[in-house]
C-alpha cells in the first residue's frame, strides 16, 4: 500500500468515526402509534392541517386545543366569496370529527374587501404560555 492510499484510508476512518459518534449523541422521536390524535376537515380540498399549533385555553373551560389551519376552506354563508380559508379549534380527543370552525372573518364592509382566495389560516402560532395570544396569518 502506498502513502497516498494510507492517508486516504486514515481520512475515511476519521470521517466514519465522527459520523458514528454524532449518530450516537443524536436522539429521535416516534409518533404515537397506540393512541394517535387524528382530525379530519369538513371540506375536501381545504388543505385542513396545513398549519397546526397547540394552544392552552384558560378562559372559560380550561383545556388544550389543536388549532388547525384550512387555508382553502369554503367561505361562510353570507360572505361574497368562494374560498376564504379559516381556522378550526380541535379538542385533543379520539373523535376525528369534533373540530369547530372559528369563523374568524369580521368584515365591516364586505363589498369593498377582496376576500376570495385570502388563505386565512395558512400560518398559525400560539404563545407558549397558558392563555397566550394566537397569531393567524393570511
What do these coordinates show?
The protein is an alpha+beta fold. It has one helix at residues 3-25, and strands spanning 51-57, 63-70, 86-91, 100-101, 123-126, 134-137. One of its GO terms (molecular function) is integrin binding. Residues 1-28 form the signal peptide. This is Integrin alpha-2 domain-containing protein.
Helix content: 10-25%
Query: Mind summarizing the main beta sheet?
Result: 4 strands, antiparallel
Oligomeric state as shown: single chain
How many β strands by DSSP? 6
Which structural category fits the helices and strands? alpha+beta
SSE pattern, N- to C-terminal: HEEEEEE
Order of the strands making up the biggest sheet: 1-2-3-4
What is the average of the pLDDT values?
Answer: 83
Segments where pLDDT lies below 50 for 5+ residues?
A: none
Shape: elongated
Strand content: 15-25%
Number of helices: 1
How far the N terminus sits from the C terminus, by CA atoms, comes to: 64 Å
Radius of gyration: 24 Å
Please write out the topology:
Layout: H1 3-25, E1 51-57, E2 63-70, E3 86-91, E4 100-101, E5 123-126, E6 134-137
Antiparallel strand pairs: 1-2, 2-3, 3-4, 5-6
